[in-house]
Task: inverse folding
DNA sequence: TTGAAAGCGCTAACAC
DNA sequence: GTGTTAGCGCTTTCAA
């Protein structure tokens, strides 16, 4: 809050208008003046006040980043990486990111993040699944919104998503090519669009290879998608007494939990059971064995989201563009050829 | 950016000044007018523009929250919880939090977070250890700063810290009271003030109980304080062939890694070796067994930090207040009485 | 090619 | 008690 445009103008001996014009590359300013202005700006280390700028431009220069509290606190840095990507990209555009969490069970009359209520953001990036109730409350604000790793049930939106279907296919195909036929699928929170897609990818790939679906091999009704759910899912699977030589978990956390349970029950991984996860959470240094998984470019998703909202803001149009980022199979040591 | 103070004023039939005064509780307004103004504000859902307000008040209403990228991405939600506390507290005060990460090896000419360079924050909360180089670069900005879970080598500062010394004492004492005498200490990054204090607490408590220190039992030169360091530390310890029945790791991550290594080598926990951690990261559902540890009120630390910076800002004085938050021993299943 | 001036929405003297 | 008014720092017609 120190050196203002006025002082720059005075130093150069021009009007503030001229300085402003120069700074916005805008128009017909003689190269001579431009140079002198730029020099003064440099020398004085002039930093335009975002406040004043925003006031006249009628924009805050802020983007709200919203996710549920449990997502933010997830042990593996999934959404934090997305956030970092967004933050990084925001540096180039001249936006600031305001982060706020909402309750996972956001209720009709819960209070909205203050930056929304106060209209202190120009747009919103919403990461991960959020309650319908929350989205409903957003409507009157008429803010541009970009979703990341989530797409609401209703309506058309802008979103950055990952290729869940293809990821699940890659994972399943990997196992099939290793010779596995009895491949279990582990999931929870099956209503979540991403999980559902992964489930779908699993099923369609099996069919594509003419492997009959076996409902006994699918555990999809776990409450959560955390480690303990993976653990429990395998317990259930074992209790069913159904034969399986491989296992595709809908995410890494469940895969890790699943491995724990398998190991506890004396199964060798990957010798007796191959395990594939999804997300590549790269958290547990002590994954034992290191998990074969589908890696997701989290950081890039954050970047894409920021670019998307920025272009929405600049063009002042609602494009409802969907960006699907690619995923890839990362083969580590938790999978091996089928050995009977 | 819709309904302004003007419209409120017009609706009530008073001047904008009156509305402004009412809104700031400020004194001599007749209860009658006050009521009418408040009613209009309500009806129109008037939200004061932070931009305009900031412009005249010469404050941005933003607080920068800075930490190193690796801290932000830590698998256990330590700093994220602190951040959440800060965020929560910021709702009451009318501040927004801008989060930025810096490289852990911030170098002299690295670019500062944009909100600092651009003077878009009124103050800074710095969480965790940050490079000296970064702090040096901050000086010219003359911003009020509150440190959380870190205290710079030089100078006097405001900070919110946890009682590391007492925590380490509690942990060590717990083991001693269980009958253990040969208690190992595991640490990395020993130059970090917090780690050093924990080391100190360990040592002084042993001495207090007249247990001679045994350097062979101290592994303090691990590079990091992550799981793999815990794992490695135990490897080293075992290779030394020194006798030990309990182990105090400088944090939970190392404790977990240590347990992995112990289990791999056939040790039963807690029957043969008791393990205590520090931080209570409550991340791994599958801590096996659940870890006895020192719990730290992370969320509260965030709240305290926000309150501290706020009061600094309000009083416009540099108090250099240090707040030490209490820690407590949480006994779970990784510790048991000494059995020879 | 440049400058004057109005005004973005709000606060805070200072009048009345 | 309440209104008038002068900015806060910036952008942007409009004139020159």
Result:
């Amino acid at each position: 809050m120190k050196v203002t445009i006025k002082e720059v103008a005075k130093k150069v001996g021009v009007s503030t208008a001229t300085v402003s014009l120069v700074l916005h590359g805008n128009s017909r300013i003689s190269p001579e003046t431009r140079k002198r202005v730029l020099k003064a700006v440099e020398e004085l280390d002039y930093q335009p006040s975002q406040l004043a700028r925003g006031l006249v431009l009628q924009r805050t220069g802020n983007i709200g980043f919203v996710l549920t509290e449990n997502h933010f606190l997830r042990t593996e840095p999934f959404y934090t990486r997305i956030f970092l990507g967004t933050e990084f990209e925001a540096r180039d555009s001249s936006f600031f990111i305001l982060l706020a969490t909402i309750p996972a069970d956001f209720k009709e009359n819960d209070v909205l993040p203050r930056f929304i209520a106060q209209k202190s953001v120009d747009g919103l990036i919403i990461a991960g699944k959020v309650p319908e109730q929350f989205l409903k409350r957003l409507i009157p604000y008429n803010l541009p919104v970009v979703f990341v790793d989530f797409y609401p049930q209703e309506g058309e939106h802008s979103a950055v998503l990952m290729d869940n279907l293809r990821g699940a296919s890659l994972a399943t195909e990997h196992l099939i090519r290793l010779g596995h036929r009895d491949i279990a699928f582990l999931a929870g929170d099956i209503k979540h669009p991403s999980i559902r897609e992964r489930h779908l990818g699993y099923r369609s790939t099996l069919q594509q290879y003419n492997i009959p679906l076996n409902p006994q091999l699918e555990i999809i009704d776990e409450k959560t998608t955390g480690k303990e759910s993976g653990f429990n899912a395998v317990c259930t699977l074992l209790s069913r007494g159904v034969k399986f030589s491989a296992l595709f978990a809908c995410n890494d956390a469940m895969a890790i939990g699943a491995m724990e349970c398998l190991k506890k029950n004396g199964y060798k991984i990957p010798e007796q059971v191959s395990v594939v996860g999804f997300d590549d959470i790269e958290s547990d240094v002590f994954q034992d064995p290191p998990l074969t998984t589908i890696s997701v470019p989290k950081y890039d998703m954050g970047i894409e989201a920021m670019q998307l909202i920025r272009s929405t803001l600049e063009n002042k149009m609602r494009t409802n563009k969907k960006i699907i980022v690619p995923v890839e199979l990362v083969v580590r040591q938790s999978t091996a050829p089928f050995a009977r």
Q: What stands out?
A: The mean pLDDT of chain B is 92. Residues 298-315 of chain B form the longest helix (18 residues). Residues 1, 4-6, 16-17, 20-21, 24, 48-49, 51-57 of chain B lie near DNA strand C (CB under 10 Å from a C1').
